[in-house]
Amino acid sequence: MVYLYLVLGFVLLIKGADFFVEGSSFVARKLKVPSTVIGLTIVALGTSAPEAAVSITAGITGNNDIALSNVIGSNVFNILMVIGVCALLMPFPAELAILKRDLPINVAATLVLLFFVIGNRKIDQYEGFLLLLGLVIYLVVIVRSALKERTEQKEEKEILQVPIWKTVIYIFGGILAIIYGGDLVVDSASEIAVTFGMSQTLVGLTIVAVGTSLPELVTSIVASRKGESGMALGNAVGSCIFNILFILGMSASLSPITAKVMNIIDLIVMLFVAVLILFFVFTGKKVTRAEGIFCVACYSIYIIYAAIR
User: Fold this and answer.
1) Cβ proximity of 215 and 101 under 8 Å
2) Burial level of 251, CB count in 10 A (0-12/13-18/19+)?
């Protein structure tokens, strides 16, 4: 029965995020916000909602290994698999704003998180509040950028035909599905870990992280195939930033998150992949198919390492 609950939780997470993103994207388009900004904010926040539900719930219930490991695993997955698979299917250029602002912020946020964890092997409540403050500053920068880049775009006919009540249902219905799905995933994953003798750290890095990162993968692939490369890359990078500043910030502010030596090793891996994608984009102003293959190969090696250690 526990496996059925795990599958049901993932379904609710994915479909809830899908509805939330669709409703939120409609509102963003009505406000005439560029696709890159949508990817970095609305879509990134929506697709990060599963990680938020899982990690915050885990933090409240005391499963801190899953809370921290889920974010680390999700960020590694976002960079290596989401961006890697998108580049593998269709190489895409990176917009200058993402290169100059968001990719360096992702590296900086990862460094700050590593500094917090190395300092005293945990993320204290005041450090959680500092991460949330960083999120507020980041959002202010994004909003100011959006106002500058705001363009007069023609409203699509199908957008105008979508009633407001349907948009509200999509947004709030999606949030409810995400929250309930997060509860199911944490509870069932923890039970499976005990049954098979797996550590909660391994479960968070693999099963939970991959499952809750599926919205990012699907959304970015669809965006990339539709020619919205800015939204595809922005979604992956924005999700990583939200995962650190919002999810861990909120989780730690509710209850301090303890860390193990393995978490420090995984954080170093997360920093490496953040620098790696910055290097790829900086050198060629795009992510090529060869770089996508390299990213996917690196993720495969990482999962093997996480499983056998």
Assistant:
1) no
2) buried
User: pLDDT higher for 36 or 269?
Assistant: 269
- Residue 86 near residue 78, CB atoms below 8 Å: no
pLDDT in tens, 93-116: 877 878 888 999 999 999 999 999
List of residues 6+ apart from 284 with CB closer than 8 A: 291
Which segment, 15-24, 86-95, 196-205, 295-304, is predicted with the most confidence on average? 295-304
Interval 14-38: pLDDT, tens: 787 778 777 766 776 666 666 566 6
Which residues partner with 286 through β-bridges?
Answer: 93
Dist CA 168 CA 251 (whole Å): 27
Residue 287, classed as helix, strand or coil, is strand
Count other Cβ atoms within 10 Å, centred on residue 129: 14
What integer pLDDT is reported at residue 191 of this predicted model? 79
Alpha-carbon distance 266 to 114, whole Å?
10
Distance CA(61)–CA(76), nearest Å, equals 25
Closest CA relative to residue 129, chosen from 120, 116, 141, 140: 116
d(CA 232, CA 223): 5
Element (H, E) at 54: helix 44-61
Residue 53: which of 211, 262, 274, 195 has the closest Cα? 211
Neighbouring C-beta atoms of residue 161, cutoff 10 Å? 8
For helices 64-77 and 44-61, angle between their N-to-C axes, nearest 10 degrees: 160
Question: What token pair was written down for 13?
Answer: 């997470």
Instruction: Give pLDDT, residue 155.
Output: 47
Hey, what are 273's tokens?
Answer: 């992949």
Could you identify the residue written with the tokens 């290169």?
99
Answer whether residue 301 shows pLDDT above 60: yes
Asked if 153 contacts 34 with a C-beta cutoff of 8 angstroms, the reply is no
Secondary structure of residue 197 in the 3-state scheme: coil
Rounded CA-CA distance 16/117 in Å is: 32
Provide the token pair at 191.
Answer: 């039970």
